[in-house]
Amino acid sequence: MNGNDVTSDQVIAKLVGMGFEFSDITDAIKAVGPSLDNAIEFILNDARTNNAGASTASLCLSDSKVPGKRATSSLQSSCRMRQQNITEHLNLAPTPKRSKVRVLCNESTNQTNSLTVRAEGLEVSLTMDTSLNHCPQSFMGPSYCKDEEIMGFDWENKVKNLLQKHFGFSSLKGFQKEVLAAWLANQDCLVLAATGSGKSLCFQVPALLSGKVVVVISPLISLMHDQCLKLAKHGISACFLGSGQIDKSVEQKAMTGSYSIIYVCPETILRLIKPLQSLAESRGIALFAIDEVHCVSKWGHDFRPDYRRLSVLREKFSADNLKFLKSDIPLMALTATATIRVREDILKSLCMSMGSKVIITSFFRPNLRFSVKHSRTSSLSSYEKDFDELIGLYTKRKKSCQKLIPQDTINSSRDSCTTSNGRTFGQDEMCQNIVNDTDDSDSSDDDETSEKDAVGLWVDNGLTSRHEKELSVQFLEDDFDKVQEADDLDVSCGAFCGQSTLNFKNCGTPDSRKLLTKAEKKPAIHYGTLPEGPTIIYVPTRKETLSLAKFLSRFGVKAAAYNAKLPKSHLRQVHKEFHEDVLQVVVATIAFGMGIDKSNVRRIIHYGWPQSLEAYYQEAGRAGRDGKLADCVLYANLSRVPTLLPSQRSEEQTKQAYKMLSDCYRYGMKTSICRAKMLVEYFGEEFTQERCLFTFIFTLLLLLFLFIFCSLLETYISDVFVSQNQTFAASDLIWWRGLARMLQDRGFIREGDDMSRVQLRFPEATDSGLRFLKSTESEQAFDAYLEADMLLSMNSRKSYSSFSEWGKGWADPEIRRQRLERRALRKPRKRKSRKNQQNLSTVRGRLSAKLSKLSK
Ligand SMILES: Nc1ncnc2c1ncn2[C@@H]1O[C@H](COP(=O)(O)OP(=O)(O)OP(=O)(O)O)[C@@H](O)[C@H]1O
Ligand SMILES: [Mg+2]
Known about the structure:
The chain is α/β, with parallel strands linked by helices. The chain is built from 38 helices and 21 strands. It is globular, with a radius of gyration of 29 Å. The termini are far apart. The structure holds adenosine-5'-triphosphate and magnesium ion. The site of adenosine-5'-triphosphate has 18 residues, from helix 10 and helix 23. It comes from Penstemon davidsonii. Residues 825-856 are annotated as: Disordered. Belongs to the helicase family. RecQ subfamily.
């Protein structure tokens, strides 16, 4: 968009979409006029200028090494430029506008040298490790080697040598060996292995081993770009082909076999079937690898329709279709997050052969410490509480003796010293952690436990209640930030030349590799405060990426915002500086997800409910890839039911989306089992670990619940439950919600209508619930683990007398009769009430019917 051709309204709309504050936007437009680029620059630089005292913090990665100066924004220059191509992107030679950024790059890459690469018909300079010499004349990979030769050899030894030579690894991991064996046997293969376990090597080694080309289908440009850069460092020539590439020279070279590995997005490969068939005949194609293959499935969390069309690969590259092939070119599909249903969908949708091998490794990441904390999130007071420790960590502020003071005001308020709120990051908690941080001051919402609220106790996705309105802002305004197309960075196509004899001693980051190898043998798990290391904070809205990054920057943390609507040049810069450890914190939406392979990320914080456990585990998996301890903390409002992100879904997909969100919610609430166990079991893995902590006996409450909400066996119940049970007296709506989930998990109750919801709304007894009630078993105590919201509600010192009295009243048959009568006579409320009344498939309808029976 040309900033000069638009109206203020258009600029405002764009900026709101990016997540900027309205007041910031209007200030910017007042100052610079209706120019999008200038307004962005103004806002981001203004945030920085405000942060005069914070020497290095920057919301948008301006030149942080020039304190106090208005930044010469990389954004400014790049926003105004046309989209860069890869050669420009890699070429760090200065141009006047970008000089400051470049100084920074040069400083941080003083170990590097220039490598001349020929790409897109140009000679460009690529910053590389000092160990790399000039690129060989040819782009060809290792010498061609026929199938028979590979099979005939002791391939494991050959691979070992190649690994040592190119990557500096001593051996393959067990699952990598299995995958390679499947490939050598020409089998299609589905690989499910944890994030950071080394799936890429499974498809990279075949290129080295066979000398043929490996074609990798990958969902994002940033991901392809990073992998190509790494391969180049490891001496393997690679390129990536994006959807918007105009210059066809890299593509042409790729199709004539100039690169050992071709990364391509699903949209592009569908266009390249014919040239790839020719390539299969000339240099040969070793395999098609479909990375992040969960994108194939509508039941997964990152569905991309074009992934489904990859089924043509099986047909177009089969021996039946291409007579020169001895056997079908194998498909290798890889992901870290696929439930059993998604796996089946992948195999079917890609038409993988009947004899496909499915290789599953443990999803367990022993060095990741999972915890859940209660927070109302999204407000300044929550930021102050929740990020106090993090700010202290990065700014070396001493805990509990220095107030959280923005850097720009620190000089004027040095003597005001209050204690921090005592929250800690990285508590010793492997299995679970609920911080009962109920904030009395803002709990009024939950106090309103009138009969009306209790009837609508299970807030679902309904669109009517005030709570729900508030909840909806917790999520992305739309699902633009989801992976929808490959084009996520302003680099669309690129050639990377590998250097053939790479010396391990000099290449890459040997330290991290050593650590990885060590960690693989014996994960280092300590329980204590983590060292600094980089942090990624996932927030649900684009707006919050900006507000939280701004907040952290004000306290001197080097933080930047990342969301799909920010200028691509900014996003590229964030990627780069995050990888170079210039940034300490990236505050991002889900757009900053797949493919972030940075070894030393120490903390992944989710600030608000994720939409699925798949997405959560995928994002959390960015932490601790060096095998060292890392924290994965979910901050969520445990007293509220999360709502679904608005999106275009079929009815079936909506059901599935609710199921996924509901599973995620239940993950947050569970206190009874190890969180890691819950996560890996979600992906269908058996996990044996001692159960831990709380035991609670709740027979009476269980019966009470069934009695009240399922309208059953009134005489039987009234004998049992009218006790002045203390726990009951101290419970509230939130508590009952937890109990409902527990009973649902045990199969005693279910949702009374056909709607999909995160939380039960119209519970009704199942056959097994009824059987249970009538059996002698129901007299015995149950051991149960209280869920997080139950603990939370019990810990808050509110009096829930109104609800308790209300609840107790139901036990008295007369009160109960009167209430039912009142309810049935009540004027039907809008929508739901009208619909539900007299409808025997709903609780309201059944209650009404029961009332007629009672009054006879
Ligand atoms: N055999 C091995 N020995 C030691 N380290 C290895 C081995 N194989 C891979 N690695 C390292 O593991 C790290 C993670 O690898 P990779 O990016 O392939 O993970 P991934 O399984 O694809 O993760 P994700 O699901 O997040 O994409 C890399 O830095 C890689 O160098
Ligand atoms: Mg990967």
